[in-house]
Amino acid sequence: LKRMEIAGLGHCDFIDRPDPGGLMQALEELDYLAALDNDGNLSEMGIIMSELPLEPQMAKTVLASCEFDCVSEVVIIAAMLTAPSCFGAPPVDLKPEAIQCYVKLQHPEGDHFTLINIYKAFKQLQQDPYCNEERWCQDLFLNHAALLVADALHSELTDTLKRIELPISAPAFGSRTNTINIKRALLAGFFMQVARDVDGSGNYFILTHKHVAQIHPLSAYGAKSPKLGLPEWVLFHEHTFSEDNCLRTLTHITPEEFVQMVPQYFFYNLPSSESKDILQSILNREASLCQKGKSHKETPEDQTTDRCVIQ
User: According to the UniProt record, where is the region Disordered (predicted)?
Assistant: First the structure.
């Protein structure tokens, strides 16, 4: 609607009028994502985001990946999360077997990286003329139709990026630098979806609204997937509050990575909590170190008391 330059969304004659609170929250999120200018219209960033057939947070993540040279990997994540879930729905008696299959595909950095593993394995399989895609998916309890949709979305996103002349980095999945950059890109779009394990037992406190949720069992960090331990801080893609109060598709992050990527005006609007205090102490420490670094480089006449801003 913003791209169509429809002003006064609260006064539009919607066939099915959205909840006013939800509408205001959507505008607030667009503002946090730097998709709106000071007049409430789409910013340059917002216009580019609207070119991508993705929800705003994922669109911002893809654009950030251009800056962090991890486009190839992030486009896979975007396609896999936009398509229906690639995980099948096995019968109850086969769930333990399905979980064991998923464990084989898991990546130690988290669920977003696991999705890359699955997509790459699927694409590699397609190159083998003697392999049956559907049988392979069936054996691993994966949804073949969903993977085909993800593959089509991947092609569409890649074509869109080329059309609007954004850079597409060469694949570098597996390198430490690439892993860090993928997390930075994810945080650029999903900084509003971060949670902290407050007691070490999997009770995750969501920073934005002080709700506590658990990890979904099919996550790489789920209780039935012992390959990975429980991380203290996670970025999550979805919170199914009304269904099972679980966080789905998580990746481990550090609080230092979070404070480096989060917009300050969003951080200051977070409700007070122990988790926010921890982040604030990191911000203060980083600012102090930055200020000391500036002091060593400046002459006494040039020194100022400006606070180092961590973006």
Answer: 291-311
Do residue 95 and residue 168 come from a single domain? yes
Can you give the pLDDT at residue 224?
Answer: 47
Same-domain check for residues 172 and 82: yes
| DSSP β-bridge partners for residue 110 | 251
Q: Is 16 a domain residue?
A: no
Mean of all residue pLDDT scores within the chain = 86
Q: How does pLDDT run across 145-172, given as a tens digit for each residue?
A: 999 999 999 999 999 999 999 999 999 9
Identify the CA nearest to 247 among candidates 238, 256, 258.
238
Mean pLDDT of 271-291: 90
